[in-house]
Design a protein that fits this description.
The protein has helices spanning 6-23, 29-44, 51-65, 70-100, 117-120, 126-135, 152-164, 176-181, 207-216, 248-251, 292-299; strands spanning 108-111, 141-145, 167-171, 187-190, 194-196, 201-204, 221-224, 230-231, 252-253, 256-257, 270-273, 280-283, 286-288. By secondary structure, it is an alpha/beta fold. The strands form 3 sheets. A 7-stranded mixed beta sheet has the order 3-2-1-4-7-12-13, with helices on both faces. It has a 4-stranded mixed beta sheet with strand order 8-5-6-11, covered by helices on one side. It has a two-stranded antiparallel sheet with strand order 9-10. Helix 1 runs antiparallel to helix 4 and helix 3 (51-65) packs antiparallel against helix 4 (70-100). Bound molecules: 5-S-methyl-1-O-phosphono-5-thio-D-ribulose.
Length: 300
């Protein structure tokens, strides 16, 4: 969790494979390829939900197959990791630019988790949209969910918005409904970890609740994500693997116990928002709307 956020997990996974290859000293191509397979498997086993990791590893696997020697393979792997990094960063600028058009001057928007430069390497996805809208001169106010249990909102999004000079208020996740129903919040925008072919979207736990609140209160609910987050191999969100993390992240806050010893705690790191609750998905190739099965197909 030192490095997290779907796009950065993919970028880092690619660099991890390149670094592993550089440290593999065999010049025998068969032995080298065996070692590389092990490295890719080890990186793939780090986190299961973010599609970007598996997208990046597939690219690394494919490019490795094109080189004839161990030395050449190391070179192409380093170059490919840098290419993936540059592409992901560029995608966030396009997402931010087109998404900013959806945010009106004077709006207060709510966001969840962390989707800024720390999570993406570029502008950010949902946070990039907000920061871009602000930089375009729109007066934007933001409500930032703290994002229990690991507090990505409080620790990371608050820090990034402070640096970007965007006005915001930090709230606990359980306060979101109260502020949304007050009419103050005009839209909700979050990132994504994996989007199924029908538009069902896995994102940080708590996102589904926000989408339901958005529908109940008739405000738009937007997802911002690069197309590398879309997994066309899976039909619906039911097939998205949801990472289950250790219970101590729930029973403890930064090492301090907040529950009686020995209690049972659940800790799914992500939830799935059904496509029917999503107003639009903002990608680097454009903004798509329902029906998502068709509009996602059109992106590719
Ligand atoms: O568990 P994390 O911190 O990796 O989860 C991050 C999120 O859920 C983000 O909202 C998502 O990756 C989108 S990042 C642009």
């Amino acid at each position: 969790m030192k490095i997290r956020g779907a796009p950065v997990i993919g970028i880092t996974g690619a660099y991890a494979v390149a670094l592993g290859a550089l440290k593999t000293d065999s010049s025998d191509i068969k032995k080298f390829r065996n070692a590389l397979r092990g490295i890719i498997e080890a990186v793939a086993a780090t986190r299961p939900t973010a599609r970007n990791l598996f997208f990046a590893l597939e690219r690394m696997r494919q490019v490795a197959a094109t080189a004839g020697t161990a030395g050449k393979t190391r070179d192409v792997l380093v170059a490919e990791a840098q290419k993936i990094h540059a592409e992901e960063a560029a995608a966030t600028e396009k997402i931010s630019l087109s998404g900013a058009g959806l945010i009106e001057d004077g709006w207060t928007v709510l966001t969840h988790c962390n989707t800024g430069p720390l999570a993406t390497s570029g502008w950010g996805t949902a946070l990039g949209v907000i920061i871009m809208a602000r930089q375009q001169g729109k007066k934007i106010d933001v409500f930032v969910d703290e994002t229990r249990p690991l507090l990505q909102g409080a620790r990371l999004t608050a820090w990034e918005l402070q640096k970007a000079g965007v006005s915001f208020t930090l709230v606990t996740d359980s306060m979101a409904g109260h502020f949304i129903s007050s009419g103050r919040i005009k839209c909700i925008i979050t990132g994504a970890d994996r989007i199924a072919a029908n538009g069902d979207t896995a994102n940080k736990i708590g996102t589904y609740t926000l989408a339901v609140l958005a529908r109940e209160n008739r405000i738009p609910f937007y997802i911002a994500a690069p197309t590398t987050t879309i997994d066309r191999n899976i039909k619906t969100g039911r097939q998205i693997p949801i990472e289950e993390r250790g219970p101590e992240e729930v029973t403890h806050v930064r090492g301090l116990s907040i529950a009686p010893e020995g209690v049972r705690a659940a800790n799914p790191a992500f939830d799935v928002t059904p496509h029917g609750r999503i107003t639009a998905i903002i990608t680097e190739k454009g903004i798509i709307r329902p029906p998502y099965t068709a509009s996602i197909k059109s992106l590719f």
